[in-house]
Amino acid sequence: MVEQRSTARQRRTDAIDIGMRVFADHGLTTASIQQVADQMGVSQPYVFRLFGSKRNLFLACLDELEARIGQVLQQAAGAHPAEPLPAMRAGFRTLIADGVVTGLWLQACAAARSDEVVAAHCRAVIGRILAHAGRLSSAGPQELRGTLALGALVVMLQALGMDLSEGSQAAIDSLREVEATA
Could you tell me which residues form the DNA-binding region (predicted)? Predict the structure, then answer.
């Protein structure tokens, strides 16, 4: 049996998938290309050849995050054309359940504080996601703002290890109950 070598495109896809997890756990500053290369089974210089820099790999990971969110929005709107926003929210909660999207986004926001390139990229990602959600749902600016705010809340709650299986309101209520007993 002849072993088939991966194409550069497939290796790039693999590096982004692994990079999302590595950056979610370690952030742009602390993560290393070596961690990605080790998990891919390739050399560090090879990963640099694919992306040019660690920041470029990070930005590619943010682009993949955007693509995954866009796919969730598209599927939800297609499945529930009459009421797409609730379906989009549910799809987003499912997407973030493993913590990778949440971790990557929080790390991106942290990096954006001191890196204008990352900040501009994050702003562009949010803008494109909002525009896409608006096109798919016909939601107005206030509805989109509310959905974005709820999404940010869900990301924060998920990062804190809150149980979101009953929805974000139940998670918030459980926090209020903890405070009441403290």
Answer: 32-51
